[in-house]
Amino acid sequence: MRLRLLAAATAAALATIALPASSAQASHAWGSYHWARTANPFTLKLDNNVTSAWTSYLNEASADWTTSTVLNTTVVNGSFGSKTSCTPTTGHVEVCNASYGSTGWLGIASISITTGNHISSAFVKVNDTYFVQAQYNTPAYRRLVMCQEVGHTFGLGHQDENQTNPNLGSCMDYSRDPDGPPSNEHPNSHDYSQLVSIYSHLDTFNTPTAAPAAGNSAAWGRLVEGRHGQGVSAYVRESGRGNYTVTHVFWAS
């Protein structure tokens, strides 16, 4: 029952993102997920486990999101050895790339949740199986996917999930034309406003340890939003004692 209620709440929150652009921009928080912290701005470490083909895009995404008034990000050396598992360190966002195979997804973001709705760790994966293909191997697509997946780890959802709608000028807009015009390669003012809304309150603690996130589709758990293998979708996996993992997937088709 708890999982069913959780799934319903998550689906409802994400469903608001898929409204037409004028309504979708009203709020694009990913549920009520956020990092627990006692002061703003707070700093998140983005652990760099990517190859040189992705380093500049990770650095650019970090600089873009640090423009926010409520959070800063800093890129640090990766803290683990396996790009396949990409297991996150508590309090960090692990960022990885590898040829993960014909999974159907360009990028995924996964957040581990503890004590209700607080993010304790996260990971981002970008799939080189697709980014070596001419369709996706462009600076615009790399910027879009890296910026969007990192944005999810802060508690942001999509501004719009209809890929045929005109671009909104935000990397949190699901798009098949990332360089536009307008370009969907960077955050826009509404993304920064949404972060202010998400982090408008302070917590009485900083996010504690939670169970590490799973790294493959079989372990993502239950589908709670979208369709497997198409567009964007979300999954929930419970790990006991009030901890669970939410995974957001950006499919290649």
UniProtKB/TrEMBL annotation:
<dbReference type="GO" id="GO:0008237">
    <property type="term" value="F:metallopeptidase activity"/>
</dbReference>
<keyword id="KW-0732">Signal</keyword>
<protein>
    <recommendedName>
        <fullName>Matrixin</fullName>
    </recommendedName>
</protein>
<dbReference type="InterPro" id="IPR024079">
    <property type="entry name" value="MetalloPept_cat_dom_sf"/>
</dbReference>
<feature type="signal peptide">
    <location>
        <begin position="1"/>
        <end position="26"/>
    </location>
</feature>
<feature type="region of interest" description="Disordered">
    <location>
        <begin position="156"/>
        <end position="190"/>
    </location>
</feature>
